[in-house]
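Following up on my earlier message about coenzyme A. Here are the inputs again, as you asked, copied directly from the submission form:
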Amino acid sequence: MEDKSIVDTAVDIETRDMIVDDMEDVLSIERASFPTPWSEGMFLEEMKHPFCHDLVGLVEGQIVGYISFAIVYDEIHLRNLAVHKDWKRRSIASKLLSGMINISSGRGASYGVLEVRRSNEAALGLYKKFGFVVKGTRPFYYTDTGEAALIMWADF
Ligand SMILES: CC(C)(COP(=O)(O)OP(=O)(O)OC[C@H]1O[C@@H](n2cnc3c(N)ncnc32)[C@H](O)[C@@H]1OP(=O)(O)O)[C@@H](O)C(=O)NCCC(=O)NCCS
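Thanks, got it. Here's what our run produced:
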């Protein structure tokens, strides 16, 4: 795929609910994004859970990213977010996060919580842009690397 970092970064991104037929594309992005990726079973369980929401982002019909979150009363818990490597820095994650906030606000949620690897500069930059601030740490949270998680919180 061409290097999109040198062309206009504006893209038309459509979002919709994740469906079972999306699994192949979603798992491909998931496996390329995380050292301990979610399994197909985890996504399928997530999609069935009444508190959980899963959106995919598409550009010209191609899945370029996804977000999974739970709404529990007034709290949004961001559970998963990833963008295809060829589409990073094109506001895909921003669009998905905005979608999460819109849906959640419509259901009465007023604040968001997430965990992120301390070393994940891209995600930290993204979350700070959306008003998340670090509220604490969970040492050794990620069992694959032993890395600490930063707990981030945002008031919507
Ligand atoms: C983190 C991730 C989801 C960001 O997706 P993205 O679509 O590239 O993000 P956006 O284009 O919407 O970026 C929005 C802002 O986030 C920040 N950001 C994104 N990538 C960044 C990077 N590599 N370094 C620093 N800041 C970054 C910037 O503030 C950016 O705004 P700008 O482009 O105007 O400077 C993506 O890099 C990814 O899939 N990473 C692997 C999976 C992952 O870490 N998920 C998060 C788990 S907690």
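One observation from looking it over: Residues 33, 81-83, 88-94, 116, 120-123, 125-126, 129 surround coenzyme A (CB under 6 Å). Hope that helps, and feel free to reply on this thread.
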